[in-house]
Write a structure and sequence with these properties.
The complex is a heterodimer of chains A (309) and B (108). With 309 residues, chain A is an alpha/beta fold. Chain A contains six helices and 17 strands. In chain A, strands 1, 2, 3, 4, 5, 6 and 17 form a seven-stranded mixed beta sheet that branches. In chain A, strands 8-15-9-10-11 form a five-stranded parallel beta sheet. In chain A, helix 1 links the parallel strand 1 and strand 2. Chain B has a five-stranded mixed beta sheet. In chain B, helix 2 links the parallel strand 2 and strand 3. The chains are: A alpha/beta (309), B alpha/beta (108).
Chain lengths: 309, 108
């Protein structure tokens, strides 16, 4: 459903991942006239996950795409309006707040910011130049291009381990490069990775440079404790080191933490009354689909209270 | 042409390289979730750019020859061909407004 000609809403939700969709389910059931604005496609980062195994209620797991679609169907059932547009500006301090987008301006009483985060980049030489030529940020998309070839994964969290396990189904060898001497990942994922003979760990190691002409050929590594440099021949490198909040569009319109994340209290209220934040975009978010959905619900309940005050 | 047409190793030369107008090739695969999510966006763009750019899609899983020729190692991967030559490449999922900028640049 797209936004109708009517441009006034009770609540505008920015972002169509689990946080935004969950907020939309709650605001729509509260009979608030709600608009969700998504810049790409609804579903959010969870859509990159081949299988989501930790969302309560799905005992056998659920694919990330399916989870996103189910949330969207559920929200649509209660009348959530969804429009695909980019937010270009905000006026938040007046009573009637304005959200400016590529599809026109909308006014609203409350805003829930749920635009999430995206994969961080390493920012090292060769990374940008070789993106799509061996440098990848999505193992579920690109693993089959590295059949029987050695690859590296950079990172030590859940995403890095999940990607390494997926790559092990295709590649000859998976080298997991982590700057520390232990993983941040959930223990069950670590156990699976350690039991997978194709996965090898390179601890206390960082990638300094990615080399190759048309395609990735090798990585220049540095052992952080000894400073010793080495090279590693790989056909691909999957980067899973961190996340960057999608808050660039808010600069100048909304006060951000110096890391780019948004601070909220436990009611998901930001420092501006009537403006809420939910999901990965919050400082210290647990960055899970289920916590994002919980944040969205909390934000929606409190937005409803704010509006009816 | 309002919907992206499927091309394969055999028809690529004729449908893409010999086309009189620019051709966008969406290199995709059924296992690639962002590709599946990008498909409806490309369908919309195919309508908006009808007669200016031909939209096509090539399943890299079934058409390894062409995928290898253009060094496809990451998808979604969109290459725009003009007079038989690749002139623009977009790797990874991009929102519609950003894609439009790239398409408009090719038409300039």
């Amino acid at each position: 459903m797209t936004a109708k000609s009517k441009k006034e809403y009770d609540v505008i939700i920015i972002g169509g991942g689990p946080a935004g969709l969950s907020a939309g389910i709650y605001t729509s059931r509260a009979r608030l006239n709600s608009l969700l604005i998504e810049r790409g496609v609804v579903g959010g980062q969870i859509a990159d996950a081949e299988m989501v195994e930790n969302y309560a209620g799905f005992a056998e797991g659920v694919s990330g795409v399916e989870l996103g679609q189910l949330m969207q169907q559920q929200a649509a059932k209660y009348g959530l309006n969804i429009t695909i547009a980019e937010v270009t500006g905000l006026e938040l301090k007046k009573e009637k707040r304005v959200v400016k987008t590529t599809k026109g301006d909308f006014t609203t009483k409350a805003v829930i910011i749920a635009s999430g985060s995206e994969r961080g980049k390493l920012g090292i030489p060769g990374e940008k130049e070789l993106t799509g030529k061996g440098v990848s940020y999505c193992a579920t998309c690109d693993a089959p291009f590295f059949k029987k070839k050695p690859v590296a994964v950079v990172g030590g969290g859940d995403v890095a381990i999940t990607e390494a396990l997926h790559l092990a189904k295709f590649s000859s060898k998976v080298l997991l490069i982590h700057r520390r001497d232990q993983l941040r990942a959930t223990r069950i994922l670590e156990e699976r990775a350690r039991a997978e003979p194709k996965i090898e760990f390179l601890w206390d190691t960082v990638v300094e440079k990615i080399e190759g002409e048309d395609v990735v050929k090798q990585l220049i590594l540095r052992q952080v404790k000894t400073g010793k440099k080495s090279t590693l021949d790989v056909a691909g490198v999957f980067i899973a080191t961190g996340f960057k909040p999608n808050t660039d569009y808010l600069k100048g319109f909304f006060p951000l933490d110096k890391t780019g994340f948004i601070k909220t209290n436990d009611r998901m209220e930001t420092e501006i009354p009537g403006i809420f934040a939910a999901g990965d975009i919050r400082l210290n978010s647990a960055r899970q689909a289920i916590t994002a959905a919980g944040d969205g619900a909390t934000a929606a309940v409190n937005a409803d209270k704010f509006i009816s005050q | 042409m309002s919907k992206p047409i499927e091309v394969d190793d055999a028809s690529f030369e004729q449908k893409v390289l010999q086309s009189k107008i620019p051709v966008l090739v969406d290199f995709w695969a059924p296992w690639c979730r962002p590709c599946l999510m990008a498909a409806p966006v490309l369908e919309e763009l195919a309508k908006e750019y009808a007669d200016k750019i031909t939209f096509t899609k090539l399943d890299v899983d079934q058409n390894a020859k062409i995928a290898a020729k253009y060094n496809i190692m990451a998808i979604p991967n969109l290459i725009i061909f003009k007079e038989g030559k690749p002139v623009s490449q977009i790797v990874g999922y991009k929102p519609k407004e950003e894609l439009k900028k790239d398409l408009d640049a090719v038409l300039k």
